[in-house]
């Protein structure tokens, strides 16, 4: 996802861009957004759908891991 941009220039700014991109997509493409989250179609229904879901989740996972790595150790919750 372009908004993440490998966490540049810093993980917090990049994570904020990811959130803004999701909100922008929801606002400008409400039918697609609704289909993604409310259609009830399991991600495993097709290989293409599963791959798209995995790509989206990978961005969120990478962003979360980058943010956690920036947190002071005493502030982190156990995995």
How would you describe this structure to a colleague?
By secondary structure, this protein is an all-alpha fold. Helices cover 65% and strands 0% of the residues. It contains three helices and no strands. It has helices at 11-28, 30-38, 47-70. α1 crosses α2 (30-38). The two termini are 25 Å apart. The model has no long low-confidence stretch (mean pLDDT 83).
What would you say about this model in short?
Helix content is 65%, strand content 0%. The model has no long low-confidence stretch (mean pLDDT 83).
Helix content: 55-70%
Low-confidence stretches: none
In sequence order, what are the helices and strands, one letter per element? HHH
Strand content: under 5%
Q: What is the strand tally?
A: 0
Distance between the first and last residues' Cα: 25 Å
Instruction: Tell me the major beta sheet.
Output: none
Q: Tell me, briefly, the overall form.
A: globular
Mean pLDDT: 83
Which quaternary structure do these chains form?
single chain
SS-derived structural category: mainly alpha
Whole-angstrom Rg: 15 Å
Helix tally equals 3
